[in-house]
């Protein structure tokens, strides 16, 4: 598993995780409340500036993480071209890029431990009601950690396919990808069992 936190130290690394998550929620809500195209463009340029300030390495790493949006951008553009409403499509894309870029910025400047501390505090009312939140607190970081790992595994499998066959990749690659994911899940399950599993919460 890999870390999503950027090794490039920025001004935002020292900010409390709760403040950054709250700012992310409020900004995303405003992006969807305000309808003006100019506002969406300015917001995206402002986020791009935040990526540029720490330097080229941080900018390059951030943009690399955002490449996953390309297929969605293409789909939204095609859909709004077909429905003859490209203006709405462009605004939707600007909102999507800005919101995801901000979320990515929070992830790059916040350690997973800090994020999970916020989640643990937010779930305190449930624990007072006697509901165990330990399984969810374990599942969330696993999901965050494994998503990029599975994407990397898929890319390696595509490369292996291209190296061994002149035919294009097709649906047959889905089964080995699922088996790899299940194998990883099995190993993680064994590791969790060895460490006591997702037992009910213990007060910190």
Automatic annotation (TrEMBL):
InterPro entries: ABC/ECF_trnsptr_transmembrane. It comes from the Bacteria. Its main location: membrane. GO terms for cellular component: plasma membrane. It is found in: Membrane. PANTHER family: PROTEIN ABCI12, CHLOROPLASTIC (PTHR33514:SF13). This is Biotin transport system permease protein. It comes from Paracoccus saliphilus.
């Amino acid at each position: 598993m890999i870390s999503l936190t950027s090794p490039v130290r920025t001004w935002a690394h020292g900010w409390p995780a709760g403040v950054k998550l709250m700012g992310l929620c409020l900004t995303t809500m405003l992006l969807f409340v305000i309808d003006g195209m100019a506002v969406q463009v300015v917001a995206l340029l402002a986020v791009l500036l935040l990526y540029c300030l720490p330097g080229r390495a941080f900018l390059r790493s951030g943009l690399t993480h955002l490449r996953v949006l390309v297929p969605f951008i293409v789909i939204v553009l095609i859909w709004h071209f077909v429905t003859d409403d490209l203006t709405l499509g462009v605004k939707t894309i600007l909102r999507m890029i800005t919101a995801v870029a901000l979320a990515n910025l929070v992830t790059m400047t916040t350690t997973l431990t800090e994020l999970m501390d916020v989640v643990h505090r937010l779930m305190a009312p449930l624990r007072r009601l006697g509901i165990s939140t330990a399984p969810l607190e374990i599942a969330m970081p696993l999901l965050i950690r494994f998503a990029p790992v599975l994407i990397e595994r898929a890319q390696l499998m595509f490369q292996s396919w291209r190296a061994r066959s002149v035919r294009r990749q097709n649906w047959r690659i889905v089964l080995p990808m699922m088996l790899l994911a299940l194998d990883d899940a099995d190993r993680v399950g064994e590791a969790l069992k060895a460490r006591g599993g997702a037992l009910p919460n213990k007060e910190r």
